[in-house]
Amino acid sequence: MTPPQPTPPSPVTSEPARPDAESRYFNRELSWLAFNRRVIEEACNPAHPLLERLRFLSISGSNLDEFFMTRVAGLIGQQIRGVEQRSADGRTPKQQLKAIVEVGDALVDSQQGVWRDLLVALAEQGIRIVDGTPLDDESAAWLSTYFREQLFPILTPQALDPAHPFPFIPNGGLSVIFDLVRLSDQEPIRELVLLPAGVARFVRLPGEDFRFLTIEDVIKRFSGQLFPGYEVKASAAFRILRDSDIELEEEAEDLVLYFRSAIKRRRRGRVIRLEMESGIDPELEQVLKEELGGARALLTEIGGFLGIGNLANLVEIERPDLRFQPYVARFPERIREFGGDCFAAIRAKDIIVHHPYESFDVVLEFLKQAAADPDVVAIKQTLYRAGKQSAVINALIAAAEAGKSVTAVVELKARFDEEQNLLWASALERAGVQVVYGFIDWKTHAKISMVVRREGAGFKTYCHFGTGNYHPVTARIYTDLSFFTADPRLGRDAAAVFNYITGYVEPDSLELLHISPRDLRRELSSLIDAEIGHALAGRPAAIWAKMNSLVDPAIIEKLYEASNAGVEIDLIVRGICCLRPGVPEMSARIRVRSAVGRFLEHSRIWAFANGQDLPNDEAKVFLSSADWMPRNFDRRVEFMLPVLNETVHDQVLDQVMVANLLDTEQSWELQPDGRYVRVVAGAKPFNLHHYFMTNPSLSGRGAGKGRRGKVPTLSLARRGRPAG
Description:
This protein has 22 helices and 27 strands. The chain is α/β, with parallel strands linked by helices. The protein has four domains: 21-123, Up-down Bundle (Methane Monooxygenase Hydroxylase, Chain G, domain 1); 124-258 and 274-315, Polyphosphate kinase middle domain (polyphosphate kinase like, 2-Layer Sandwich); 333-508, Endonuclease Chain A (Endonuclease, Chain A), CATH 3.30.870; 515-708, Endonuclease, Chain A. The radius of gyration is 28 Å and the shape is globular. Mean pLDDT is 88; it is low at 8-15, 248-255, 702-715 and 717-724.
C-alpha cells in the first residue's frame, strides 16, 4: 500500500471563476496560442538566417501538435464526461474549444502561408521541394531505384474492406489513402499505406543542388509499382493526433507498472485532430471522418505541408551560411582559477552560472568530480528531464559503482519523458543507485543536486540548484541559471527536501528555502504584501519577475492589489500570461513582456525592491524552479531560493533581469486587449541574447574581471508612476 502523503498547508488558494472573470483574466489556452503566434512571427523575421526561420516554423508546428495532444485533449475529455468546470476567465470547456478551433485554424493557415513564403526564399538559395513536378531522366532513374530498393520493402499496403477493417494508426502517424480500380474487371478497392515512423520525411535527389521530395509524394509517384494492375482514381495524405495525456489514478499501487501500461494506452488514445491535404476526394474524406474522426475529433484540411514540425529535418542540411553562427559556451573562469576543482571554487564563494552562455559542462564536472572523489560519501539528485544521451546519468552510475551512496529522485510524470525516465531508472537501479519516484499526486519539479564530502573531522555539503533541467541538450538552447553553494544552511535545507520526497518526512522548519506545496505560495504572497506596505508608506515599491507562465488567479489578484496600491511591476513572461496588464484601476502599473529569440527563455527570477531605490544591494532576489501556476504552487515540489551572495545578487538583478527588461530586438509587449505588440528598437537597439553571448558574466569571470577591466553591467532606472 502507498503510505499516506502529507497534506500541505495552503492558506492562499487558487480562486474560482469570478462573475467579472473575463475582464480580469486572459484565457490560458488562447494565451498559449498567442505565444505560438509569436514563434511563427520569428519565422518571418528577416534578421534571422533563412534556415533558422524554418526552424522557428517547425517549432511552432511541434508546439501546436503537443497543445492538441494535451490541452485540447483534456478539454475534449471534460466535454465527453459532461464536466462544466469553467476556466479562470469564466469559459466552459465547450466555449474554450470553439475559440481554440477558430484561433488554431488561423494559426495553421498562417503556418502554411509562412511555409509558402519560405519555399520561395529557399528556392532562391538553391533549396527546392519538387513535389508533383516532372524530373529529368537521371533523377527519375535514381528515384526509381531508391523506391524499389529502399522504400518498397518497408511499405505495407492494407486493403480496406469487410475482411480488412481500418487499421490502427499511431499518434502523429502520416498515411496515404488510395481509391483504386482493378483494370481487369473494373472492381473498385480502397488501400491504405502507413508511412513507417523511422523513415525520413524528405528524400534528397542526387546532385550539387538541394532538391527534395516528400516521402508521400514519392509513394504517389510510384503507386503503379505498389499497386500493379490498378488505376489510381484518387489519393490523399493525412495525419492524426491522439490524446497523449496520462491521468494518474489515485488507487495506483505500483507507480512504475502503472506508467508502463499508461504509456502503451497513450499510443492508442482517442483521435483529437485529423489533418487532411486540401482537395481531398469527398468519398475519401468521409471514410476518414467515419473511421478516425468520429463526432469529437477536430477536423481540418491543410492547403500545403502536413506536419509542419517535420520541417526540422531540412534545417540541418549542409548550408551553415543559412544558420546562426555556431556559439561555443564559455566554461566558468571561477572554476578554472581553482585548477578545475569545482569543490574548491564553490568552497571559496557561491557561484552563479548562466546557461547557455556558460557551459552546462560545469554541472557535469561537478557530478563527475563527485563520482571520482574518494572523499565524497553521498550524492542526491533530482531528475525531471535528463534526455536520451545523459552524462548526468552516467556520472551517477559511476558514483554508485565507486561505492558511494547515491540517491536519484526520478520523476515518472514528466510529460513525454515518462518512457525515457523509466529506462534511466532501470539503468540506475542496476548500478546500485537508490531510485525513488517521489509523491504519487505531486511532480518533483525542483532541480537540486547535493554532494556530501568528508573534509577534516566532519562532512561538508555542496549543492547545485537550477532553474532548468539536468538535460545537456536543452541546456544549449534554454537560458537558465545554475547556483552552486557550500552554505551549510542550504545544505541542511536540501537534505530536508530530499527526506521530504523520499520518506514523506515533512520538514518542521527550513532555514532559507521555501518549497511547494508546503509554503512557497504563502511566502510569495507575503513578499507581494510587503511591497504593498512599502508603497502605502510612501517608500519605493517595485516587483520584477521572470518566468515561463503566469496563470494562478490568486497571485494575479495579489498583483492587481499591488498595482492599485502603487507598486511598479514589470513581468517577463515568455509563454502563457492570464494577467491583463495596463487596465486603469486594476493593473495600470503592471507591464508584461515576452522575449522570443535564438534561445528559449526559461529561468525563473523574482526580485522585490524592498523599500529601496534600485539598483541597490537591499533588493530581495530569488531563484526558483517554479512558474506562477496553480500546479507549481499546489501539485509540484518546487523551491524558491534567496540570493544572498553580493556578487551573485548583482549578476542576477543588474544583468540578467535588467537585460530582459531592456531588450528591444526580440521582445513583445502585452496589451490590455490581449494583443502582443513587438517592441520597437530606438536609437540604441539592444539584443538580450547577443549581449550575453558577447559579454562574459560577472560571476563566471571571477578574479579575472579585475585584470581585464570592468564587466559591462546594466543599471535599472525605476519607471515613474503613471499619472493619477
